[in-house]
């Protein structure tokens, strides 16, 4: 079992920072050190995630400027960077992994004049601070940061704190002959009695970088400190094989990872939500507004609290509190303007509201909490979503349902994805919780619409229904997405067992089960070798849960074996290394490492962890693993 002492408390007690030197590690590259270190050295103290210093100022100054350089910005990654881990081969198996034309679009972006980079802010920026980008300008150009207005490039760009996000910030440069020389945070600090005092919170336990002090009149460097991380992290081992003890330990680690994904920028509408990605190479979290994925996280946190032996950095009651806070945020994101075309739907990302994605978080999140809390707000909000689904099906004559409403463009998308099956778990869960036949009829109506639109003669589903042609694209064999299809059909079966949805789910499940590797993993595409597309960490995690759910329904031991093998693979690949922000996650290195970018980089996707947690909960509920 894991030690009951939390990782956070351990780090608070043992972490130290050294200034001006490093022992056993190189905090900054030689080039970076030459650029940002100079003057006399001073000591930075670390207490948990708090960095602080006091420094005498010999010059007659009323203020000084503090500059903070994170190690994460030694290389500021570009959207279409090519990973050194990508397969060094070009054949049909490496092409068009997701959809035709995707690779060509990426290559066109690489050849364009523009590039998108992501400078990292892994410190809790304060109102008296700004982000500074020093540019190497080769020719006149423009920039745009975090979807703000386009502005002309200058040698030094200062961005006020309100427009700076925690972790990755999107920075467009045009033309890309211009480049970033430095990115840092800056603060003007008053000199009091010939001394300055400064304190700041880091966003990660193991922050490293440099801090320099400057004369604000001319930029002269007065002093600097190299902040290093010297702590030896506690070894974590969850054992080998499959045991109840190991599964509980893995669930504890996964729950801690989910807790640490919290988005804490108070200037954002998504404040309190979760980051979708953690990139180990770039040392940054990304994409904080992906609210449909918060449902599985809430389910895991809420239900893990009732598992004997689960030990995380917070109490079990706090696990449940965090889950409820997360789901309250999604309730707050429901569109309640009756004049809006998206009335009743949740804002599921920064720019859109998706009916089916909203219903997915209802099934995985809201209704998981409703089972215990019986809070009617979940049913009331769910009814508005069901009404929205019926309204859209009415408008499109039960032929298709738009994937999402785009706020800025004031229109609906003109496609429907096969992942629209994600809407079925929410509708089915509302019926099973209330017995209201309205929800059952809506479940059947949507399930039948999707089957008519997507299912082919093999029982597989095409990828996109396009309203302009009223036709569906061919199958793309995306293993994770077929998990969403099976999830929807399984839950629709629970609401309407007479409709034959379970048999359809089993056709898909058996087709994918035939491709499961001996170690329990699944390929990103079940028609291609993982050698060329990668192992599907997300797919393996969700199918681990689905196979165990099928085993409970039909009793076929092959589903139990497949589910437990998938869980064992996930446990074997749960990260327990030195990057504290990644601990407890499952690192994917595949074509869709970062969903639709960061191909072949090492990335933890938050919903991979929550699907894994759900699979563990399914296993621990079985008689075979009950205490």
UniProtKB/TrEMBL annotation:
It comes from the Bacteria. GO terms for biological process: carbohydrate metabolic process. This is Secreted protein. It comes from Marinoscillum furvescens DSM 4134. The lineage of its organism: Bacteria, Pseudomonadati, Bacteroidota, Cytophagia, Cytophagales.
């Amino acid at each position: 079992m894991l030690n009951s002492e939390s990782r956070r408390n351990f780090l608070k007690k043992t972490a130290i920072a050294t200034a001006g030197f490093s022992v056993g590690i190189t905090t900054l590259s030689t080039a970076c050190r030459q650029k940002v270190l100079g003057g006399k050295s001073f000591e930075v103290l670390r207490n948990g995630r708090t960095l602080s210093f006091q420094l005498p100022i010999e010059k007659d100054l009323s203020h000084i400027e503090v500059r903070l350089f994170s190690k994460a910005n030694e290389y500021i990654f570009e959207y279409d960077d090519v990973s050194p881990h990508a397969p060094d081969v070009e054949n049909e198996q490496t092409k068009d992994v997701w959809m035709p034309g995707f690779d060509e679009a990426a290559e066109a972006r690489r050849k364009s004049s523009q590039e998108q980079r992501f400078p990292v802010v892994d410190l809790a920026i304060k109102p008296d601070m700004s982000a500074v980008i020093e540019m190497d300008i080769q020719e006149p150009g423009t920039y745009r940061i975090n979807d703000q207005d386009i502005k002309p490039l200058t040698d030094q760009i200062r961005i006020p704190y309100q427009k700076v996000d925690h972790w990755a910030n999107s920075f467009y440069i045009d033309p890309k002959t211009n480049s970033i020389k430095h990115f840092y945070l800056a603060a003007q600090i008053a000199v009091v009695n010939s001394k300055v005092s400064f304190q700041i919170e880091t966003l990660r336990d193991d922050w490293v970088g440099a801090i320099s002090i400057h004369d604000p009149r001319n930029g002269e460097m007065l002093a600097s400190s190299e902040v290093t991380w010297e702590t030896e992290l506690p070894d974590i081992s969850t054992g080998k094989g499959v045991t109840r003890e190991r599964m509980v330990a893995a669930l504890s680690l996964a729950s801690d990872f989910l807790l640490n994904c919290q988005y804490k920028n108070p200037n954002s509408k998504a404040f309190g939500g979760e980051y979708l990605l953690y990139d180990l190479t770039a040392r940054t979290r990304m994409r904080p507004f992906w609210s449909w994925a918060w449902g599985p996280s809430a389910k895991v946190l809420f239900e893990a609290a009732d598992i004997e032996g689960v030990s995380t950095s917070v109490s079990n009651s706090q696990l449940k509190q965090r889950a409820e806070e997360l789901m309250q945020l999604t309730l707050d994101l429901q569109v309640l303007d009756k004049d809006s075309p998206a009335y009743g739907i949740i804002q599921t990302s920064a720019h859109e509201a998706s009916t089916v994605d909203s219903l997915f978080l209802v099934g995985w999140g809201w209704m998981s909490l409703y089972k215990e809390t019986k809070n009617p707000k979940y049913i009331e909000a769910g009814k508005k979503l069901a009404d929205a689904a019926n309204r859209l099906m009415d408008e499109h004559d039960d032929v298709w349902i738009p994937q999402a409403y785009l706020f800025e463009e004031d229109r609906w998308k003109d496609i429907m994805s096969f992942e629209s099956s994600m809407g079925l778990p929410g509708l089915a869960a509302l019926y099973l919780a209330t017995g209201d036949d309205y929800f059952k009829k809506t479940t059947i109506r949507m399930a039948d619409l999707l089957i008519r639109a997507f299912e082919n003669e093999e029982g597989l589903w095409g990828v996109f229904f396009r309203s302009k042609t009223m036709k569906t694209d061919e199958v793309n064999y995306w293993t994770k997405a077929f998990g969403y299809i099976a999830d929807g059909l399984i839950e629709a079966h629970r609401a309407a067992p007479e409709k034959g949805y379970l048999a359809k789910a089993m056709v898909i499940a058996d087709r994918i089960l035939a491709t499961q590797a001996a170690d329990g993993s699944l390929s990103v595409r079940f028609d291609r070798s993982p050698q060329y597309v990668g192992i599907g960490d997300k797919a393996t995690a969700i199918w681990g849960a689905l196979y165990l759910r099928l085993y409970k329904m039909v009793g076929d031991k092959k589903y139990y074996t497949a589910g437990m093998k998938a869980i064992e693979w996930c446990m074997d690949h749960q990260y327990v290394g030195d990057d504290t922000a990644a601990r407890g996650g499952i690192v994917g290195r595949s074509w869709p490492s970062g969903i639709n970018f960061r191909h072949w980089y090492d990335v933890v996707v938050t919903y991979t962890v929550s699907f894994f947690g759900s699979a563990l909960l399914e296993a621990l509920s079985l008689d075979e693993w009950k205490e």
